Amino acid sequence: MAGWFALLFLLALTIALALFVSARRQRAHTGLPPRAQIVYADTGAWKKVERPLFSRRYGLTGKPDYIVAERGATIPIEVKPNRVAPAPRESDTLQLAAYALLVEEHYGTAPAYGLLKYRDAVFQVDITAELRARLLDTLAALRRDLSARDVARSHAEARRCRACGYREVCGRQRMDNEP
Fold first, then answer.
1. φ/ψ (deg, to 5) at 92
2. Where are the alpha helices (DSSP H) in the chain?
3. Pick from 58, 65, 76, 143: most CB atoms within 10 A?
4. Contact between 83 and 89 (Cβ < 8 Å)
5. pLDDT digits (tens, 9 = 90+) for 45-91
6. What long-range pairs does 55-61 form, CB within 8 A, spacing at least 24?
7. Three-point CA angle 167, 171, 174, nearest 5°
């Protein structure tokens, strides 16, 4: 009888250890710091977030994928699971900077950095005064465009032009390398 209990105990211990190792691997795959506490999550894997973060001061709202607390710091994290790039894209960097502004307003402390998780890499993006200024300039330009009668579109990326729903009525010449 004692042998069966010992065997069941060892089996339960082995299963618990396997689950622990699997959970650590999954967490590492998300890009979350290993010892950080998740304080906000906008993913289906966690509880539903009631409201997005909102800044009346900047007229900005958003839902970062995660916000974690680690050693007194509050860190926004944005996950782009299908993106592969050697460095963060500018649009993703500005999105993370916007989340840093929202975190600052909501939690009362400005993050020193945020994390961008691409499929195969995690990038630490320092939230500098220069990045904040670029974000605020971009927000101002977006607000100006909201009231503009006609907004010039970017045609610098052939891939985006090919996927554009207005391609046939655009009025701009197609790029040379398009089919």
1. -70, -40
2. 2-30, 90-107, 129-147, 158-163
3. 76
4. yes
5. 555 655 799 999 999 999 999 899 988 889 999 999 899 999 999 99
6. 55/101, 55/102, 55/105, 57/105, 58/101, 58/105, 58/136, 58/139, 59/139, 59/143, 60/98, 60/101, 60/102, 60/139, 61/102
7. 60
